[in-house]
Amino acid sequence: MTKKEVKKKTFQLIKGMKDILPAEQKYWEYIISEVKKIARQYGFERIDIPVVEATDLFSRSVGQATDIVEKEMYSFVDKGNENISLRPEFTAGIMRAYIEHGMLDLPQPIKVYTIGPCFRYDKPQAGRYRQFHQFNFEIIGEEDPVCDAQIIQIAYKINCVIGLEVNVQINSVGCPICRPDYEQVLKEYFKKHRSKLSEVSQKRLAKNTLRILDSKEEQDQSFIEEAPQQVDYLCEECRNHFIRVLEYLDELEVPYILNPTIVRGLDYYTRTIFEVTPVEVSDSDKEQSRQTALGGGGRYDGLIELLGGRSTPSLGFASGIERLILQIKEKNIKIPTPPSCDILLTQLGEDARKKALVLFEELTKAGFKVREAFSKNGLKPQLEIANRLGVKLALILGQKEMIDGTIMIRDMDGGIQEIVDYQKVIPEIKKRLEKLAIVNIKLDNKNKSMHPASEVPDKE
Ligand code: AMP
Question: Is the pTM of this model over 0.85?
Fold first, then answer.
């Protein structure tokens, strides 16, 4: 074998997975911090659940005949012979935790949120990954429609805060009392058109008729448009519940679109269901609206009982972080940049490096935004780093400074260098940074007064 042939194998990402590189982190930090802020504002507490759960938990809650359970779960038998799956969503696990930890005995409703990765063995494409991240909000133990409105308000508001224009599409899928009647009517209707439906929908006709409404196949669309609508078959209680949800949304001025064709891919929903989609979806997006949905959720009043707990109404929603980031980039939305650093600490020679190691600790402890270049030797490469980082000051500890007990402070903008007593380095830096901040404020104000047009009130 030649040298070339024994070339080392390199590894690549597994299909459908994604690295989140340092340049991307600002988007993640921004979204997560806004989610946490909103959670605090609305009184939601954080819950974290494991990435793996019993496979049965998902097949029972999400539904045996759903795409997620049928095709998309990462399921395997572990070394203890347990059938386990990577979570494809959060709700089932959170409900399991609610039952297992006796949260029913706490004052209700329980309001929790979580953030983390989920896994679905789906066909990867833009906005659809096999490992993706959701944030998820749940209200457990309350039937009142005001909670439905609040959950929708939160799902909507997160997008608004980020600067995205979205629509809320809403529907009611009724309850176990009225849904079977509707399903029957729907089945009769689709049966009449069976031969003209797509193959997927023909299969769904037998197993899960409601899911035909979710079909993205072109040939099904005209039949879906003409299909009987669930809202016309709601029992009185479900109808009143739905009307009150809509009234509260009107009060909150959350814009919504009644969309009788949204059914959502999971079996456990009752009554309110909704999806948040970007405004101005292109035609190709419309065809694949499952990829463009930024979030979705609804009510699942029967879920906890289905999982062995006491009957407890609950509801929630989840949004995909990757999809939000795609939207932010597509719409060129400016997001706050992480705070830049003010100081670079440079050193020349081994003794100076040792002293710089300690000084760095002291500077960070004193609260300065400081970086170091410990592994570099010459001054030039270190000052290049200072320029690249855009710091205001460079601190230089050279051999002379070591002997004199001093340190040099270089103003990176003007290039002026001053030697100060090492013992006074902290107050000296503070003084300079404060002075630079005042100059910046003055410059800012001067710029404003040079452009008085920006201060003229808008004529309209
Ligand atoms: P779902 O539970 O399917 O309604 O998903 C809720 C949200 O999670 C969706 O609206 C998307 O934003 C996101 N999401 C779901 N599946 C994926 C995926 N495979 N890749 C990326 N994001 C996803």
Answer: yes
